[in-house]
Write a structure and sequence with these properties.
Chain lengths: 191, 191, 191, 191
DNA sequence: TATGAATGAGGCTTCATTCAT
DNA sequence: CATGAATGAAGCCTCATTCAT
């Protein structure tokens, strides 16, 4: 057995870190950031409290890391469909992208909202997310402008609001929300 | 000189209670339920910590009372416009009602969302609010059905989601949201 | 209606005071001194907290007053049978006196013990009661000495201890203790 | 340098826990359960308040643990002398056992009484102790029955009451109670 | 005399974080 | 790298007592 190389350690560190973040995301989303103690996160992740602080400087840092990763995924999903936004089909792709985030990362999405309503908690993430959203909204506004809509900016914002509104209700009572159907209806309304 | 009458005490109690609730609503909405200590609420309300417990059995009870009052106001605003929902004008009244809640009770609305994303916090209020919403949604669904819409239930739910989505963004960055314009656009989309 | 005379007021005060003490004794005995708030005593006595402080300077003063009254009654019961202690019949009277206190004033007796085990609580009463007891013990010791017992002082003390021991168990589980039978057995053992 | 083993932690935990219990027993016995704050216990034990909650879930749990340990010791002392109870010598062993508890564990015994007179405080311990006592009483009753005593059950109970009565007075004023002498006198009365 | 609103000290408990091993 | 004992600040809540009316 040769001693592990530095790279191997790095791999272990990275996966350990991700595992903690995944666990914490689950707990934060399910129970709320404040209601969830570091002790419980460590226990749930199968490690000691001390080790957690080896990977994150604080509970807030852990939250920030989760948020950053989530926002990155958010970006990635959008970039999968990122290109010119001219045709209704392309608009549909955008709408679909929004719904995909709800479908694929429900916990992150839920935590995102939760954090938004707790000023002082991960403010940096809030700002970063809002910027991302603004860019997106501006892209969509261009589409409506091209289409000759009299209120392109508001229309674009409204579309964003709708998706968040649907997400919000989806997390409050998933069983009553038919994402697929709503996706189509929204497209019909905005195309 | 002569001892206070029962009625005088009642007046004191009622106004004090409202004062505390108003203060707490402000703070809860601004800083989040968990981030806001009872000590701060008392200080902000200009009373002692102890007195707060003369009016509410616990911090959670204070929150519940605030939520209950808010939901009552919510009801009242809806009942102001409560009648048959047949014509587009009447639908507009409904939409307007939703926006009025955002406009008139922004703090309550914000707290409502905030609470929604903190499981275990005022669950009873969450349930009560959701029930209120469901009734409303069913009323609106009837309108769309009458109009011959193929997905009346989803359309109605979507309308609710939109209003909440707008509210959500309004509270995150009020300066970027033009409520009046959005109200009209939504009406145009759904009438 | 002529206005009430000062004496009438005094009568009212006295009976009110007694009523409060009786109520408090009940509660203290049932729930313990510390577990029983002034608010509850007042409520239970059908008066306001403020009025209670009109009659007693503090919660401790209320307890002291109850204890003093109880010890007075204790004295009275003993004095009913106070005279020379020469014959076995007279010893029996003493034993009977002890049991009568248990029977007639169970709440006071229970409170007495309870207070004994809480140093700092009504210390004055504790001292006064112990003095009373010592005198009594000395009287009884004379009886045993006269009878030629080799350990009269210890015998007398033991008799006191027994009665308190019986009282103790009687308050812990009254249904298992047959006071009448025990009284006789004790007499047979000591006569 | 190398991390502590599980066993090392176990040793630390065990001794710390005992240390806290010992300190608390001392204070509870001396000052009463309610009069003794967690802060004082921690200070007296030379630890932080927080650490106490690392070992006990609540102040009541701490008390219960102390009581449970005391009752266990009580059992052990009785079991040292546990066997047939036929001869007067064996009865004397029993009586001696009772006195040994007073002598060896005065603080526990005092706390036991103290708790008995505070309803709602460690009720479970009260019940457990009473059961222990009942078994013991039944054993002793057999002895008296064998001896032909007309009231074996009462005699046995009385013996228990006496020992508790002596204990009670011993803790109220130890300097006035000669345990050795009383032990002999009791044996002479009951043999 | 009588009320109960109001106070504030102090109690119990939690929890993010540190650190010796 | 890994542990969990230990800390201490801060949180929620209770309650004896005061006082304006």
């Amino acid at each position: 057995m040769s001693p592990r190389t530095e790279q191997q350690f790095e791999v272990i560190r990275r996966s350990r870190k991700l595992q903690i973040m995944q666990t914490a995301l689950e707990l934060f989303a399910r129970e709320g950031y404040h209601s969830c103690s570091v002790a419980r996160i460590a226990e749930y992740a199968g490690i000691s409290k001390g080790l957690l602080y080896n990977y994150f400087t604080s509970k807030e840092d852990l939250l920030d890391s989760i948020m950053a990763l989530g926002i990155e995924k958010f970006h990635n999903i959008l970039e999968e469909i990122q290109h010119e936004l001219d045709t209704p089909e392309e608009l549909m792709m955008y709408i679909h992208g929004g719904f995909e985030i709800i479908r694929r990362e429900p916990e992150f999405y839920r935590l995102l909202f939760s954090v938004f309503f707790q000023p002082g908690v991960s403010d940096a993430s809030q700002i970063r997310y809002r910027e991302t959203l603004e860019h997106l909204t501006q892209d969509i506004a261009v589409y409506f402008k091209t289409k000759g809509d009299p209120n392109p900016a508001e229309k674009a914002m409204l579309l964003g609001n709708i998706i968040d509104g649907v997400g919000l209700h989806y997390f409050l009572s998933p069983e009553t929300v038919n994402l697929d159907k709503l996706e189509k209806i929204i497209f019909e309304l905005f195309k």
